[in-house]
Amino acid sequence: FLVLFALQSVFALAQDFHFSQYWAALTKLNPALTGLFDGQLRLGAIYRNQWIQQQAFATYAVSADANLFSKPLNGDVFGFGLSFYQEIEGKNAFKNTGANLSLAFNKKIGKRKLIHYLGLGFDFSYFQKQINLQNAVYGNLFESGANFDPVENYNYKSTSFADFGLGANYVLQI
């Protein structure tokens, strides 16, 4: 098991959205937290703008997750969540857009004062990354006598990919 875990770092590549308060985006923090709250529906939004004068980074996210079937499941929690993200770097030079679907099941253990939840969550995300180099500025554009635009000779496209996540959770309520 430890060998597989160590080898994962060789094959795994990741770049998450830049959140200052990442704990406010619970379903991105751990998919097993989806639906695990008092209530039936949780809505959330988060916004981050770094270096406002240079328009360097702006991140937007909205999410909703629900606690489904808790009464028919005798306190067990089945959670379902949706999230949408967008990150813009520079003057629309780089955009990272994503949608996320998360599912979780938390098993209630204990019936007296101490209640334990043991949970497992799964998420599926779809991302699209785009780059617009027309707004980029390169050093050789300022050099005297250089009439070369590095953007002019390239055909830049967007790329899309899917991402999967798995999380586990243990909660003790007193």
Kindly report how far apart the N and C termini lie. Answer: 33 Å
* Proportion of strand residues: over 45%
* Major sheet size, sense and barrel closure: 6 strands, antiparallel
How are the strands of the largest sheet arranged? Answer: 1-2-3-4-5-6
Query: In one word, what is the shape?
Result: elongated
Uncertain regions spanning at least 5 consecutive residues: none
Number of helices: 2
Number of strands: 6
Please compute the radius of gyration using only Cα atoms: 21 Å
Share in helix: under 10%
Fold and architecture overview:
With 174 residues, the chain is mainly beta. 17% of the residues are buried. A six-stranded antiparallel beta sheet has the order 1-2-3-4-5-6, with no helix packed on it. It has helices at residues 2-11, 26-29; strands spanning 41-50, 57-68, 77-89, 94-109, 115-131, 159-173. The longest helix has 10 residues, at 2-11. The model has no long low-confidence stretch (mean pLDDT 78). It is built from two helices and six strands, in the order H-H-E-E-E-E-E-E.
Layout of helices and strands:
Layout: H1 2-11, H2 26-29, E1 41-50, E2 57-68, E3 77-89, E4 94-109, E5 115-131, E6 159-173
Antiparallel strand pairs: 1-2, 2-3, 3-4, 4-5, 5-6
Using brief descriptors, characterize the structure shown.
2 helices; mainly beta; 6-stranded antiparallel β-sheet; 174 residues; 8% helix; elongated
